[in-house]
Amino acid sequence: MPWLLVLHIAALLVWCGALLYLPALIAAGRTGAAGEPFAPAAEALPRAFFTRLATPAALLTIASGTLLFLGRGVHGVWLMLKLSAVTLMVVCHVLLGVLILRLEDDPRRPLAGRCAALGLLAALAIGAVLWLVLARPFRGAG
């Protein structure tokens, strides 16, 4: 089971990084640094990042976490709190996908405020998961 825990932590790190980076990528997806539109290939970057990196990392995190939960038989209030925080991360993930669709629909639509709010919400959810994991006493595999 140690390999499963390593896989879970690695996938979680990638997913958390993606949740924190995607709002900035979406907000910057409207224009380049000089205020000129991005090249067509760069306009597809938020979607590619979301579908090829963030979503697989999220699915791998959730699947490996579920297997860890089933294998270790963890239950109780702690697990419910952690799953609530993870659910908030999933909601942020879905809402980032919605923002990507809105960006593709109308590249001139102002999304910076929504991206900032989602970035903050994602950071709070990630912080909650981290706090819950670190606050829980470690129990060995035995």
Description:
- The chain is mostly helical and 142 residues long.
- The chain has helices at residues 2-28, 40-43, 45-72, 77-105, 112-135.
- It has one domain.
- Helix 1 (2-28) packs antiparallel against helix 3 and helix 1 (2-28) packs antiparallel against helix 5.
Compact description:
It comes from Azotobacter bryophylli. The chain is mainly α and 142 residues long.
Q: What does the main sheet amount to?
A: none
Class by SSE composition: mainly alpha
Mean pLDDT: 86
The sequence of SSEs as H and E is HHHHH
- The DSSP helix count reads 5
Percent helix range: over 70%
Q: Categorize the overall geometry.
A: elongated
Measured between the Cα atoms of the first and last residue, the distance is 11 Å
Taking pLDDT < 50 over at least 5 consecutive residues as the criterion, the unreliable ranges are: none
State which percent range the strand residues make up: under 5%
Number of strands: 0
Based on CA atoms alone, the radius of gyration comes out at 17 Å
The number of domains is 1
Membrane topology: Multi-pass membrane protein
Cofactor: heme b
Transmembrane segments: 49-70, 77-99, 111-134
Keywords: Cell membrane, Heme, Iron, Membrane, Metal-binding, Oxidoreductase, Transmembrane, Transmembrane helix
Strand-helix topology:
Layout: H1 2-28, H2 40-43, H3 45-72, H4 77-105, H5 112-135
Helix pairs in contact: 1-3, 1-4, 1-5, 3-4, 4-5
